[in-house]
Fold this protein.
Amino acid sequence: MTGRGCAWGLALAVFALGGACFPGAVRAADPVQDLVKKVDARYQKTTDLTAEFAQTTSVRGFASAIKSAGRVYLKRPGKLRWDYLEPTLEQIFVENDKVQFYIPEHKQVLNGQLSKMTNSQAPLQLLQGIGRLDEHYMVSLTPNGARGNGGLPLLSLTLPDGGPDQPRIVVEVDAATHYLRRVELHDVNGNVSTFTFSAVKANTGLKDDLFVFTVPEGVEVIAAPTLAVP
């Protein structure tokens, strides 16, 4: 997998299904309660979704950010397709715990299991459509009180145990639609991956065939790397 796709799983999980998972993480007096309820209502009514995305990854120690763009598709529960179209083609297909990375430039397909590729089960639970993000993350206003383009406050997602090796997530909600507009992943090394979503279309009746990947002739199939057992 190339560096530009290193953070795709967690960001996509939050973008795709996170809205339905915010309310339990806030209290009655929390100023974000109304916002998260509206986001929740929007995502609860979403069975499939298509969006354009732009990704910028800033790696600590490198002067230039890595930029890419493409299109993402999802169908609940558990079906995802993540197409990088610029600067080169890469595709990611997910069905429940199964994931396939297709890199035409390398003539390779990497097959793996999400549950063995991430140290947080929250994205996997969300991808399967059976988990709630508020069972794994605490949701609050960002410490600096920043707001998005539409004037809504940015939300910060952190793990309750505050593990030092866990990413911090910042999300921006679109003021007009209450879908997630932007997701930022801040890792422990100071790297930041930002995904901005646009042209969101929901409930268009996406077919299952869209999420099926057939390995092209002459392409090598190899096992995707997994986390080392502690």
